[in-house]
Amino acid sequence: MIIWLETLMIAPLSKNLQRVRCGVLTVEIEHVDAATLEKLEQQGVDCQPKASTIRIIQDKYLQKVHFSRHGIPLPEFMQIDDLESAKRAGDLYGYPLMIKSKRLAYDGRGNAVAKSEEELSSVITVLGGFDHGLYVEKWAPFVKELAVIVARGRDNSILCYPVVETIHKENICHVVKAPANVSSKIQKMATEVACKAVSSLEGAGVFAVELFLTEDGQILLNEVAPRPHNSGHHTIESCYTSQFEQHLRAVVGLPLGDPSMKTPAAIMYNLLGEDEGDRGFDLAHQLIGRALCVPGATVHWYDKPEMRKQRKMGHITIVGPSICKVQNRLDSMLNKEKFNSQSAVTPRVGIIMGSDSDLPVMKDAAKILNMFGVPNEVRVVSAHRTPELMYSYASSAHERGIQVIIAGAGGAAHLPGMVAALTPLPVVGVPVRATALDGVDSLLSIVQMPRGVPVATVAVNNATNAGLLAARILGASDANLRARMSQYLEDMRDEVLVKAEKLERNGWESYLNP
Amino acid sequence: MIIWLETLMIAPLSKNLQRVRCGVLTVEIEHVDAATLEKLEQQGVDCQPKASTIRIIQDKYLQKVHFSRHGIPLPEFMQIDDLESAKRAGDLYGYPLMIKSKRLAYDGRGNAVAKSEEELSSVITVLGGFDHGLYVEKWAPFVKELAVIVARGRDNSILCYPVVETIHKENICHVVKAPANVSSKIQKMATEVACKAVSSLEGAGVFAVELFLTEDGQILLNEVAPRPHNSGHHTIESCYTSQFEQHLRAVVGLPLGDPSMKTPAAIMYNLLGEDEGDRGFDLAHQLIGRALCVPGATVHWYDKPEMRKQRKMGHITIVGPSICKVQNRLDSMLNKEKFNSQSAVTPRVGIIMGSDSDLPVMKDAAKILNMFGVPNEVRVVSAHRTPELMYSYASSAHERGIQVIIAGAGGAAHLPGMVAALTPLPVVGVPVRATALDGVDSLLSIVQMPRGVPVATVAVNNATNAGLLAARILGASDANLRARMSQYLEDMRDEVLVKAEKLERNGWESYLNP
C-alpha cells in the first residue's frame, strides 16, 4: 500500500500508519511536517523521498545553503533579519532585488521583488515581515527559465526528462514548452546541473529542478521540488512514461520507465483561477470549449472545490509534430477573435529559388507535394541579390515548422549550399539549366559541397524528383506518407506496363504511327 | 449525466432512469435487451447509438442481411435451420465452412469451423444446436484481418482511425498492429467500406468495423461492434484522442477529436486468462514484470473479479518509432529465454556499397552517424553482381525499421538509383571515384535519375556528407537530433574561427611555416 500525502499536516495520520500496513510513504507537496516524517522513519516507515530531503526543500533558504555547499551553481543569496540587513543586501546585490519567504512559498506566494531601496519596507510587509524568515537573492538576469524532471529509483538509477522551457507570469507558471528551444550544449548543461542537484538529496521519486539560463549562457539552479511538478504535466500526453507513473515506479522500486518524448513537441497552458466565485470560470470555460476543437489538445480540469484568483484550476496540453505547430494551435485557441479550429496549415516544405525565372522548373516540386498532400510554400530568395533575406529565411525555417528546404538555382548556383550552411534541416538542391554550359555549371556548384555541409542534389531541372525526395524524407518518420510513396511507385509501374502491353499487342510500327 | 451500460439486462434499470436525470444512454456491449432500449427511446431517453443499431448488431445474421442490403461487400452467408440445410450450405460454399451463432457471440464464443461434411453435426452440437439460431458463412480466404474504428458525432460528422491489422488465435483477438502494413490503396478501400457500413446504422458513438483482406485484394466486412473495441485499445497511448474519449465526445455531442496517431507505430497484446483460479496469473504476471522494462510499453490490468481461460484480463500496448521496432520489443518481451530490456538496437540507416573496395570511402558515413548516435548497419550489396540481394535488401528495408539508405558506387554506378526504384525510403547516393574519369562517371550515373525516382546525391567521395544528410533527414522529425546538428554547425564555425584568429595573430608566413 502506498500512502500519498496531500495534506499540510501529517501528525493525525501518524497513528493510523501503524494500524494499516503502509508499504511506502510519499508526498504530493513538500509542505508537510518534516519532524513527524522523521519520527515515522525512526519507527520504520519507508518514506520516499527521505524526510531529510523534505526538511531541506521546504525551507528555501536551507535549500540554497544545501545546494551551495554541494557546488551547484546558484544566484547569490543571503538571509535578512531586519530592514538594515535587507538594505545591506540591496547595496551588495543591487536592484531589482528578489525577496523570498523561507517557508510555505508556493505558486508565486512568498516571492516579491523590490525595485529600489525605497520599496524594501513595503515588500517585506507584504511578505509578512521577518517573523517567518526571509532571505534575498541577487536578481538573475535570465534569458529563459528551464526545468528538468529527474527520476531516481530506489536502486539510485537516475533518468532525466527532456529539458523544458517554463514561462512565468506574475511568478506563476503560465506555459511550459517541451522540448526547450535551446542548443544541445545548453540542454546538456541543464541536465547535468539537475542530476547533480538531485544526487545531493536522499530517497527515491521524481524531482523537478527549476533553472535559469543567463544572458552569458550559464545555468543557475532556482529551486527543486521533491515530487511531480507543473513543469512535467505535459509528460502525460507527450512522453512514454508520465511523471506520475514514474514517481510511483520510483518509490515502490519498479524499474524506471522511458522518459523520452513520444511526440516531437508539447506545450502546456495552465488554467488559473480568475475572480472568486462562479464568475471565475468564464475564461476557463471558453478555453476548454475551444480546446475540444484543437487537434492534439487534452483538457485537464482538477475539479478543485474552491476557485481562487491565480489558483491552478486545470491545464491544457497540446502535442504535435513541431513546437511551432503546437504554438500556433495554442495561439489560435487563446485568441478569441481569430479562433478557427481549422487554423492555417503550417508549411512543412519550403521551396525557394534564386529568381522567378526558375519558377517554370521549380513549380513541379510544389505540384508533387500538393499531390501527396504535403503543405508547402514557394518563395524567391536569392543568395546573391537578397543575402539578408536568405540568411533570415534559412536560419529561422526550422523554428517556423519547415522540415525540408528545396532550393533551385542556376549558373553559379550558391543558394542550396548557402542555405544548407545556415540550417540544420535537410536541403534538396535542384540545378536549373542556365543559358550556358547546359546545366553542368549549376549541377557542380550544387553537388560538390565541402565536407560538413551536405546538399541532396537531384538531376538538372528535375524539380519533380526534388518534390518526391522531400516527400520521402518526411515519409522516413511517417508510415502513412511512406505507404503513399509505395503506391506512387506501383502506379508508375502499372502505367509503364500498360504501354508495354500496347507495344506488344500493336507492334512497334503502329505504336509509333497510330 | 451519461449512463454507460455494462450489464446484459437493462430492464431493472428502466425504472431508475426515470428517477435520475439521464442525459444520454450508451452501451458498453451490444448484448443488452434491445426491446427495453426501444421502450426507453419511446419514453424520450436519448440512446446513442440508437436502439435500432443495437438490435441489428446483436443478431449477427440480421447484421449480415442489413449490410448486404446496403451494398457492403461481405462473405456469402445463409441461415441454417437443420442438418439438411447445413449440408446444402456445405455443398454450395465448400469446406472449411464457418458456422456461427446468431446471438451472444463474443470473443470467439459462438463461432466454429467444420472442416468437412462429417464434422457438421458435432460442430453444430458444440454451438448448442439450432434452438438459438445458426447461420453459415463461406470461408473467406483472407490474407489479413483488418479493423477500422469509426467515430460519428451527433451532427453526423464522421472520422476514421488508421486501419489496423488484427491477429486472432483460436478466434480471439491476440495482437493488434497499428497502422496495418498494407498499401495506401488497401487502407483507402478499408476505410471506405468501414464508413459505408457505419453510415447505414443510426446514432452517435464509436464503431469498430472488422474486415477481411482477401488474396485477390478485396475488402470484405466481417462484423461491426457499436462501441469502443479491443482493436482500438492502442489509441489510449498512440492517438491524439483515445477511442474512449472519442465515444464520450460523440454521444454527448462535443466536437470529435483528432483520431490520427501521435506515435508512428503501436502494437497491442492481449493478456488472456490461462487456467481457472490463481495459477492462471503466472504468465500474465511474468509478462507484466517484463513489460515494465520495455521502452514504450504500458500495462493495462482490468482487475476483473474472476479469471477464466481465454478471458481478456488485460492488455499491454507498446508504442514506438516504427512497427518493426515495436514488434522487436514485443518479441523480446514474450521470449523469456532471450528477454533483455536493452534489446538489440534496430539500425535506422543502412549504408550499402557495390564492393568492399568502396569501404575506405563509405566508412566516413558510419563514423558520422556513430558520432550522432544514430544506429546504422554497413553492408556490401552490388547491383550488378548480387541483383537478387539488392532486390530483397531494398524492398524490405523499410519493414526492418531502416529509415534512410546511403548507397555508394563507382563507375556505371547503378546501385543508388536501383535501390531508390525499389523502396519508398529516401536514398542518399555517394559517387565513388573509380579508376577512370575522376568520378564524373559515378556522379552522373547517380544524379541524373529519371523523373519519378529521386536519389539525393552528394559530392564525389564525400560519404561524410552522406552521413550528415542522413542525420539531417532523421532530424526533420526529431528535435533532439536537429539540435545536435545545429551544435555541429556551431562547432565547425568555432574551429574555423580559431584558425582564423591564429592566422590574424601570427601572420600568413608563420602560419604556413610554424
Automatic annotation (TrEMBL), chains A, B:
Entry's Gene Ontology BP terms: 'de novo' IMP biosynthetic process
Pathway(s) this gene product operates in, as recorded in its UniProt entry: Purine metabolism; IMP biosynthesis via de novo pathway; 5-amino-1-(5-phospho-D-ribosyl)imidazole-4-carboxylate from 5-amino-1-(5-phospho-D-ribosyl)imidazole (carboxylase route): step 1/1
Gene Ontology CC: chloroplast
SUPFAM superfamilies (UniProt xref): Glutathione synthetase ATP-binding domain-like, N5-CAIR mutase (phosphoribosylaminoimidazole carboxylase, PurE), PreATP-grasp domain, Rudiment single hybrid motif
Single annotated GO MF: phosphoribosylaminoimidazole carboxylase activity
Similarity comment: In the C-terminal section; belongs to the AIR carboxylase family. Class I subfamily.
Protein name: phosphoribosylaminoimidazole carboxylase
Organism of provenance: Ziziphus jujuba (Chinese jujube)
